[in-house]
Amino acid sequence: MRRLTLLLIPVLFFSIPFLVLPLFSLRSIGELEDQALKDSENNLALHARTLSGQISELITAALAKKPPQKQPPPQTAYPRLTGTMRLDGLNNDWPPELATFREKDEADRDNLSYRYYAGIQGRYLYLLFEVRDDHVIYRATDTLKLDESDHLQIIVYSGEEQKKYIAAGYKPGWIVGFEIPDDPDKIAQVEKRIHGNWKSTDNGYVLEARIDRALLGDHFSLAIADVDDTMIRAITTLLDTSAATEEPEPEPRWSQRVDLNEILKTTDPSPAGYRVRVIDENLQILAETGSIGTVPDGSLSANPGNEISNLPHLQDAFSGRDTLAHYRDPLIAQDITAALSPLRNDQKVVALVSVEQIADHSTTPIDGIIGETILLFVTTYLLSSGGVCLFLLYLTRSSAAASA
């Protein structure tokens, strides 16, 4: 028995490394896990940058296209006039039934309202505006800026071209029209095919004008412009003849001019387990594709329009920097890693793309390897040590039996 004990001690001693070495290897496995996590984040950031470049190019190309031109309202059918039309600022040669009333606001009728007549005779369109205006502002004699006074504005549409004309005077009396160039540095040109008579009244003015119909193109609109301050000389009201009030339509946002869902479909597809979102400066999800966790997968998510409130480092991305963010998604109750990359149009950041995946997705296989490795080495150590002990015990008993 003493001999067995002497043999077991060195065997057990030299077998200890078989147990200790795997434990030391856990440190290397931990470093491997950290490296795998870092590589996964780098791949995520690279994928976000690639998508950002593709989407930015598509957004720039889409915004470069001219938006559909607003169709002008149907052209008014003007009645034909009979008799002699005199440009004298009086309405006695106009049929009373042709009068149409327009006002800016019923509660503020004295500020700007008018009654106007319009009709066709021969090659001319005749107009008479009886304007009620509490402050009549004439154009200054030392400037050619014609839109800094009360005036009649005529917009002519010919196909995709548009021209602007103004009829205004620096005092009551005979007036002519001017063609206003698109370039503000250019000088307005006299248009003799527009002329008329400006007459002052106690509560405003009367403007009677005649326009050569050849000037009016395919379509045109008429409006009385009101300026009330001689110092600022800015147009405060533009009252169109087609409606009592004219509210300009808001300029559509860039995201309304771009089909982001279609853009996401045309970019390189993301691997399974990734979610791609486009987020605007108001932290609204403009488009989304892919899925993570247990969120049902679909070609496009039904959640665009929701607000992102728990995603950090958004301002860093909107400032133009690629960044990584970690947050917890309450829908799937898991930690998420998101690579954020800005989307640009003409070098301006207009939104950002977020490429996301579950944070422990890349380390799950390594966690399995660690568990399997520990179990394998411990089992091997126990089996080998037990086998060695049984073998030595057998040898000792065999030796003792032989001696006997």
Which strand order spans the largest sheet, edge to edge or round the barrel?
A: 1-2-3-8-7-6-5-4-9-10
Shape by Cα distribution: rod-shaped
Beta-strand content bin: 25-35%
Mean pLDDT: 79
Report the total helices.
Answer: 5
Low-confidence stretches: 297-303
Order of helices and strands: HEEEEEEEEEEHHEEHEEEH
Counting helices, strands and paired strands, the structural category is alpha+beta
Radius of gyration: 42 Å
- The tally of beta strands, per DSSP, is 15
Q: Which percent bin holds the helix content?
A: 25-40%
Detailed description of the structure:
- By secondary structure, the chain is α+β, with helices and mostly antiparallel strands.
- It contains five helices and 15 strands.
- The strands form two sheets. The protein has a ten-stranded antiparallel beta sheet with strand order 1-2-3-8-7-6-5-4-9-10, with no helix packed on it.
- A hairpin with a 7-residue loop joins strand 9 (219-227) and strand 10.
- Helix 1 (2-64) packs antiparallel against helix 5 (364-403).
- The chain is rod-shaped and about 155 Å long.
List keywords for this structure.
single chain, 404 residues, alpha+beta, 10-stranded antiparallel β-sheet, 5-stranded antiparallel β-sheet, 5 helices, 29% helix, 31% strand
Indicate the topology.
Elements: H1 2-64, E1 100-103, E2 112-121, E3 124-133, E4 151-158, E5 161-167, E6 173-180, E7 189-201, E8 204-212, E9 219-227, E10 235-240, H2 254-257, H3 260-266, E11 275-280, E12 285-290, H4 314-318, E13 323-329, E14 334-345, E15 348-358, H5 364-403
Antiparallel strand pairs: 1-2, 2-3, 3-8, 4-5, 4-9, 5-6, 6-7, 7-8, 9-10, 11-12, 11-15, 13-14, 14-15
Helix pairs in contact: 1-5
